[in-house]
Amino acid sequence: MLAKLQRDLPIGEQWRYEPKFDGFRALAFRDGVEVDIRSRNHRPFARYFPEVVEALLALSAERVVLDGELVAVSEGAFDFSALMLRLHPSKSRVDVLRQSTPAQFLVFDVLALGDDDLTELPFVERRAALESVVASAGEDGALQLVPSTDDAGVATEWLDRLSGNGIDGVVAKAVDMRYEPGRRGMVKVKRERTADCVVGGFRVFPGDPPALASLLLGLYDDAGSLRHVGVASSFSEARRRELVLELFPSITPLEGHPWEAGFALEGGPMGRLKGAAGQWRPDMEHDWVPVRPELVCEVAYDRVDAGRWRHPARFVRWRPDRDPRSCSLAQLAP
């Protein structure tokens, strides 16, 4: 079951609220001594998270289907980059990672228990059944119950105080909600943040006339280096052609550009995600066009990992009033 996005928290006695954790959505199936954990696109996860498998096998319920979020903890905090690194093909490496960055399965729904299909029950009844199931979980913390409240004030505090620290927002569920796979019957609420960024370059779609594929955006770090933080790529077809013409006067040779030696050279798993700030080195295909770091635009974004956006940002407007050098990474601090 999925959720539809909105910016404001729904209010009323019919709503229950849960923190939306920042991890991998997964369904866990236990049938006796057999456990299967699947991602939203049916990727098998069990082999990567043996501590979660053990926690599921420790439950008193021998036949159960749970819905939840896989997260990883590094240095006492949620860490999405560490979670991605857990998807390693080597069993020996998985055994090492389970110690250094342990995973947790944070469960928020139960779909089947014993021989009973619970999906037609109202959410409040499924929640009660879920609490009973999780009560038998071990004390190692690998399987935990997601908090729930009917207090909109508490949910607002989760949104305002915790977003950006492993909490991705708040999910609102109606008390009488059935579980309908594929339907966006829940509500997810996220705060949208904005930043003023320097345009360091752009990519184009080939064609005649050419059209902009994405803006490459940067922010200055404390050392005065322009760090590539992500892209903005959502434009209408007409706007894509207009932007190429607007950017044309700012095109500059790579020599002398802040990114002439490359960008995102520190690497990391986030660069594998579409729209994240992927690595580029001069020995790679030159698939982007450098521009003088003079143009500033305001963009809206959601998730940040290690100073990069996980998803493409949304272009809001040009900011000709901003000094490019004033656009710093400090804007991304949670």
How would the blueprint of this fold be written?
Blueprint: E1 2-6, E2 15-21, E3 24-31, E4 34-39, H1 50-57, E5 63-74, E6 77-78, H2 80-85, H3 91-100, E7 103-113, E8 116-117, H4 123-134, E9 143-145, H5 152-162, E10 167-174, E11 184-189, E12 193-205, E13 211-220, E14 226-232, H6 237-247, E15 289-290, E16 296-301, E17 304-305, E18 308-309, E19 314-318
What composes the largest sheet? Answer: 7 strands, mixed
Uncertain stretches of 5 or more adjacent residues: none
What is the name of the CATH superfamily of the largest domain?
DNA ligase/mRNA capping enzyme
Give the CATH class of the largest domain.
Alpha Beta
- Structure summary, number of beta strands: 19
**Bulk shape:** elongated
At the fold tier of CATH, the topology name of the largest domain is D-amino Acid Aminotransferase, Chain A, domain 1
How many helical stretches? Answer: 6
Taken in chain order, the helices and strands follow as EEEEHEEHHEEHEHEEEEEHEEEEE
For the termini, the CA-CA separation is 29 Å
CATH second-level architecture of the largest domain: 2-Layer Sandwich
Helix content: 10-25%
Instruction: Count up the domains.
Output: 2
